[in-house]
Amino acid sequence: MAYEWFRFYHGTCSNPKIRLVAAMTGAKLTEVLMTWMCVLSYASQADPRGSLTGLNPRHVAVDFLFPEQLRDAVVFGAQVERITAILQAMRDEGLITGETVTNWAKRQYEGADETATERKRNQRERERRARSRPVTVTLPIAA
After folding, report:
1. Which sequence spans correspond to the domains of the chain?
2. Measured between alpha carbons, how far is 62 from 79 in angstroms, rounded to an integer?
3. Among the residues of 26-66, which ranges form H helices?
């Protein structure tokens, strides 16, 4: 089954491991978060899902730079080095294990929500009852 999405969890921005990666590398928190989103996006599209085999820091660096910066070898090279350091720090902190996102299968499970059908059925029933409920309007009597 082809997935065009992945789960992004509450608390990611305040995750101590993400913040520690920023501190370890001297990168801005926004750079680390953007790198993490690129990692998740890449892993989501991989076969098998969750794999980071073939992830190239140069390709991730492209997402950070404006076109004129991409033409500047010094700027581009520095960004590639920063992304490489961020990815290594993510490995050191256990966000990435080997060539996979740690706990991918647990966090990005592919099974359907077994309660979704029943919840949707109940929601539709509540909405149907709300639409069919008679409306009573009391108007003041003018004297």
Report:
1. 12-116
2. 9
3. 29-45, 57-62
Antiparallel, parallel or unpaired: β 96-97 and 100-101 = antiparallel
Question: How do residues 40-95 score in pLDDT, each as one tens digit?
Answer: 999 999 999 999 999 999 999 998 888 888 889 999 999 999 999 999 999 999 99
Instruction: Identify the residue whose tokens are 């990666």.
Output: 21
Structure tokens at 13: 């921005």
How many Å separate Cα 139 from the centre of its chain? 53
Question: E-assigned strands of the chain?
Answer: 96-97, 100-101
**107/95 Cα distance (integer angstroms):** 12
> Which residue, 49, 60, 62, 45, is CA-closest to 101?
49
